[in-house]
């Protein structure tokens, strides 16, 4: 399959059927060592958005923190950079979404992010502690984060436009836009910080957004449904976690 990276053909070795070992397991010998998690289009989109978000966060802090604003200076220039970075933010997303083959993997992942299984709901209710939940390519936390970030982009775009061109709007709209923009910015700052912390704590996951591939062992452990989807191999379902007996004293 296109999403699988298999061991190179280096001739028969120990345990290889071609070496005459009757105890060898042919399906295991063909098991992939890595899977393609993100194609080039998705990686370009991710890093383009990450760069724009970084610019927006830095310029926002410079605009909102008086001491820092005085130190940086050139408030008008910083504000202009902030506005145009905000206007550009949806562009990579929308372009990739409609871009033929370049965006095909991204569109497939959008579908995955919008589908919830009973295992997802059980994992969420257990706050990730239920190891018997068989997850797909994205866990429920990632799905919620993607939904929030997608919605926040357009909320920030709308409220920021009202703040940038205030003469077109009533005072009540300008006041409401400022309030919403500020609070959604704080929520985004928390969500993005959490995303960065979690991403950097998982080297395999972070590497997949740089190189595109991820070890098959990671997929079997963290995303068994997706592993099965990519390889056609059926994995054993873990036993459900039993509740601890309540001690009565």
What this model shows, in words?
With 249 residues, the chain is mostly helical. The chain has one domain (34-231): Fumarate Reductase Cytochrome B subunit, CATH 1.20.950. Helices cover 63% and strands 3% of the residues. It has a three-stranded antiparallel beta sheet with strand order 1-2-3. Helix 11 (216-222) packs across helix 12 (224-231). The radius of gyration is 24 Å and the shape is elongated. The termini are far apart.
Give descriptors for this structure.
3% strand; Fumarate Reductase Cytochrome B subunit; three-stranded antiparallel sheet; 249 residues; 3 strands
SSE series: EHEHHHHHHHHHEHH
User: Helix count, per DSSP?
Assistant: 12
Query: What's the main sheet like?
Result: 3 strands, antiparallel
Q: Name the shape in a single word.
A: elongated
The top level CATH class name: Mainly Alpha
Outline the secondary-structure elements.
Blueprint: E1 4-5, H1 26-29, E2 34-36, H2 40-64, H3 66-72, H4 75-88, H5 90-98, H6 104-113, H7 118-125, H8 140-164, H9 171-201, H10 203-211, E3 213-215, H11 216-222, H12 224-231
Antiparallel strand pairs: 1-2, 2-3
In a few lines, what is going on in this structure?
Helices cover 63% and strands 3% of the residues. It is mainly alpha-helical.
């Amino acid at each position: 399959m296109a999403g699988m990276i298999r061991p190179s053909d280096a001739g028969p070795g120990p345990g290889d059927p071609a070496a005459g070992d009757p105890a060898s397991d042919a399906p295991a010998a063909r098991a992939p060592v890595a899977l393609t998690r993100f194609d080039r289009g998705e990686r370009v989109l991710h890093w383009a958005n990450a760069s724009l978000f970084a610019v927006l966060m830095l310029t926002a802090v410079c605009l909102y923190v008086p001491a820092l604003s005085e130190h940086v200076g050139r408030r008008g220039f910083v504000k202009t950079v902030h506005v145009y970075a905000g206007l550009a933010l949806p562009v990579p997303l929308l372009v990739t979404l409609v871009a033929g083959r370049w965006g095909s993997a991204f569109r497939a992942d959008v579908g995955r992010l919008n589908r919830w299984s009973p295992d997802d709901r059980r994992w969420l209710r257990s706050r990730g502690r239920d190891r018997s939940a068989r997850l797909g390519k994205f866990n429920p936390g990632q799905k919620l984060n993607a939904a929030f970030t997608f919605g926040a982009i357009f909320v920030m775009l709308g409220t920021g436009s009202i703040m940038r061109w205030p003469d077109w709007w009533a005072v009540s709209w300008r006041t409401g836009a400022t309030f919403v923009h500020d609070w959604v910015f704080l929520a985004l700052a928390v969500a993005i910080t959490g995303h960065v912390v979690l991403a950097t704590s998982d080297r395999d996951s972070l590497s997949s957004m740089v190189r595109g591939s991820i070890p098959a062992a990671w997929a079997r452990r963290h995303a068994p449904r997706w592993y099965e989807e990519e390889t056609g191999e059926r994995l054993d379902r873990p036993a459900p976690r039993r509740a601890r007996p309540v001690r009565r004293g």
